[in-house]
C-alpha cells in the first residue's frame, strides 16, 4: 500500500515538472509572428513571395508582377488600414471595385474563412512588413535605421517585432524585441548593452541550464563591439525602448 502511494507521489511530481517545463519553454509569440503564420496558412506567400518580397509574374497584368508588400509598391494600392482589410476580406477595396488592371491571377476574398483574430494578426504583420508603422521619436528613428542597416530585422523580424526560428534555443526561436520572451531574456538596459556588444549576457552564461541553450542554439547573437559606436548603441537602445512602449 505504501509503495503504491509513493509511486503516485513520484508520478505526480514528475507530471508537475513536465508540465512546468512545457509552460516555461512555451514561446510567447508576438502578433507579428502570429500574423506571419496566418499568411503562411492562407497561402499569401504563394503569390506575393516569401515575406511579401514579390517577384511572382502575373500574365496580362498591367504591372506584370503581383505587387510585393515591400519597397513601397503596396502603397500604390492601399491608402489606409481599412483598405488593407478590404483587400484581405473582399479581394479588392471598395474604392477600386470598378477598376480593372488585368492579370490572370486574382486576389482571393477571405471574408468567409478568416477569423477576426487571424485578421488582426495578419494586419499587424502586414503593417510591419510594409513599413507602415510611423516612429514618432527622433532618437528611435535613428535607432531603427541603424538596426535595419545592421541586418537585425533578418533575425528579429520586421521592425524587430517578429523573430525567426532558431533550433536548439530555449524557446525554439529568436524573440522579437516587443514581446514577453525578450523581457524575460533581457532584464535591463545594462544587459541589453551586453547583448549588443558581446553577443551574450553574463547572467545567462553563469546559469548552467541557460548556458547549455546558448551553446546549442544554431543561430547565435553576433557581437557588435567592434562595429558600433557608443552613440549608435544608445540610438539602438532608444529604438528598442520605444518599440516596447508601443502597443501595435
TrEMBL record:
The chain crosses the membrane at residues 5-24. Gene3D superfamilies: Cytochrome c-like domain (1.10.760.10). Pfam families: Cytochrom_C. GO terms for molecular function: electron transfer activity; heme binding; metal ion binding. The keyword Iron applies. Keywords: Heme, Iron, Membrane, Metal-binding, Transmembrane, Transmembrane helix. PROSITE patterns: CYTC. The keyword Hydrolase does not apply. Residues 30-130, 138-244 form the Cytochrome c domain. This is Cytochrome C oxidase, cbb3-type, subunit III.
Amino acid at each position: 500500500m505504501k509503495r503504491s502511494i509513493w509511486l503516485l507521489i513520484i508520478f505526480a511530481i514528475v507530471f508537475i515538472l513536465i508540465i512546468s517545463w512545457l509552460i516555461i519553454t512555451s514561446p510567447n509569440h508576438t502578433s507579428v509572428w502570429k500574423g506571419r503564420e496566418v499568411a503562411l496558412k492562407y497561402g499569401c506567400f504563394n503569390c506575393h513571395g516569401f515575406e511579401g518580397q514579390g517577384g511572382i509574374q502575373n500574365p496580362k497584368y498591367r504591372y506584370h508582377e503581383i505587387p510585393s508588400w515591400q519597397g513601397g509598391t503596396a502603397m500604390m494600392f492601399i491608402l489606409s488600414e481599412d483598405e488593407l482589410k478590404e483587400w484581405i476580406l473582399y479581394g479588392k477595396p471598395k474604392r477600386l471595385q470598378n477598376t480593372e488592371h488585368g492579370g490572370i491571377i486574382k486576389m482571393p476574398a477571405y471574408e468567409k474563412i478568416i477569423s477576426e483574430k487571424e485578421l488582426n494578426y495578419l494586419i499587424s504583420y502586414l503593417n510591419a512588413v510594409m513599413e507602415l508603422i510611423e516612429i514618432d521619436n527622433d532618437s528611435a528613428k535613428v535607432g531603427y535605421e541603424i538596426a535595419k542597416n545592421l541586418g537585425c530585422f533578418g533575425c528579429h523580424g520586421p521592425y524587430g517585432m517578429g523573430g525567426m526560428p532558431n533550433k536548439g534555443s530555449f524557446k525554439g526561436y529568436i524573440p522579437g524585441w516587443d514581446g514577453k520572451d525578450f523581457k524575460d531574456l533581457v532584464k535591463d538596459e545594462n544587459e541589453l548593452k551586453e547583448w549588443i556588444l558581446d553577443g551574450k549576457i553574463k547572467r545567462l552564461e553563469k546559469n548552467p541550464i541557460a548556458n547549455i541553450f546558448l551553446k546549442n542554439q544554431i543561430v547565435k547573437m553576433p557581437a557588435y563591439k567592434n562595429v558600433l559606436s557608443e552613440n549608435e548603441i544608445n540610438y539602438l537602445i532608444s529604438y528598442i525602448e520605444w518599440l516596447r512602449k508601443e502597443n501595435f
